[in-house]
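Hi there,

I know you've been waiting on this one. I reran it after we fixed the sequence typo, so this is the corrected version. Both the input and the resulting structure follow.
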Amino acid sequence: MFDFNGTLSDDEPVLYAILAELFAERGRPLSEEEYFGRLAGLSDPEIVRLWLGEDHPDVGAVLAERAARYLATVADGSTVSPKAREAVFFAAERVPVAVVSGALRAEVESVLAAAGLAEAVGVVVTAEDVERGKPDPEGYLRALELVGGGIGAADVTVFEDTEVGVAAAKAAGMRCVGVLGTLTPERLALADELAPALDLEAVRRALGEFPAR
């Protein structure tokens, strides 16, 4: 199972820039330090409500505009690197593959399709499918139900780039690989192992397959 933003899609800087613009327009500036320190990895609705306030009248409008600006920037699939695509295809030839994200379904599915990965990913769980976002394990447990086939949580390896994502995977009883790039290694310390990037080598290790030397 793959997290989406920052893991499968190298888009955290894009997300920050969009949110910073939207929040500044509403008188609540967001620094890069604040975003990566407090918000990265949370679901889109949680981020907006946390920063603007649970009862802010613009929550719905901000979510809609954030999605529109995001898709206008990344709808070509360019944030999914060739190495990440190779890794997903490799996994999909061997095991069921799922994406579990706090983003909106329209965003995730559009990028997966543009990157040519729609058929490789059998299950997609997004913010609309759960009541509680990461670090709650609900998204990963929901994905496990949808995958079916008698697969247990202990049989699953999750790739995550944030501490809340790692916490969600571990709370679901799954093995987790922390993908570096978004946060420091220290903040991913609960992961079972760390990987410099989401690539073929990382997935082969997760599947217990090692390249010949």
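Quick highlight: The beta strands are 98-100, 123-125, 157-160, 175-179, 193-195.

Best,
R. S.
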